[in-house]
Write a structure and sequence with these properties.
Number of helices: 5
Distance between the termini: 123 Å
Largest sheet: 4 strands, antiparallel
Strand order of the largest sheet: 1-2-4-3
Radius of gyration: 51 Å
Order of helices and strands: HHEEHEHEH
């Protein structure tokens, strides 16, 4: 059995109680401040590590970006060079489609073109006409009016008046072929 003897005066008891509470609060406060300092040190270290990592990534990315930009510029320069070559080639290619369209427009309805042979700026037409006059002769006049040169039609085209095969050779002006 334990016997507690109360021999201290009440004032000292209160003072000891207050000292005990202040000690607990002081230890708790000191522990709290210590935890905050440790947390601040950890966060500062993490930020320092992230800054170093971010600088190294930026250095790596900028080198990669510079390389990528140079590759892109090289690619666009090659594309531009190819486009210039294509434009140069296409400007020298004759536009026979315009000539063919014009031939179909000026050909009378009873005249049929069966063979069209093209060689450089020279064209040879073979066909069939139901009438020499006015269809075939009108077709020849229209060819002259449209700028075709050196129109050569063999005399055999003039023998028959109806239902005959014809042949015409002519030159096409290079300016006419290269118009846009």
């Amino acid at each position: 059995m334990k016997i507690n003897v109360n021999i201290l005066p009440d004032e000292q008891k209160e003072k000891r109680e207050i000292d005990k509470i202040v000690g607990i609060i002081g230890r708790f406060g000191a522990s709290f401040v210590f935890v905050l300092l440790v947390l601040a040190a950890v966060l500062f270290s993490a930020r320092l590590i992230l800054d170093i990592g971010s600088r190294s990534v930026q250095d790596t990315d900028s080198g990669y970006a510079d390389k990528e930009i140079k590759q892109t510029e090289k690619f666009f320069n090659e594309v531009n060079l190819s486009a210039r070559k294509i434009n140069k080639i296409s400007s020298s290619v004759p536009h026979w489609s315009k000539v063919m369209k014009k031939l179909s427009e000026i050909a009378p309805s009873d005249l049929r073109l069966t063979i069209i042979h093209v060689e450089k700026e020279h064209i040879k037409l073979n066909g069939f006409s139901k009438n020499r006059d006015p269809s075939f002769l009108d077709f020849q006049e229209r060819l002259k009016a449209e700028g075709f040169k050196n129109i050569n039609s063999p005399n055999s085209n003039l023998v028959s008046k109806k239902d005959f095969n014809f042949e015409i050779e002519m030159d096409v002006d290079s300016k006419y072929l290269n118009q846009n």
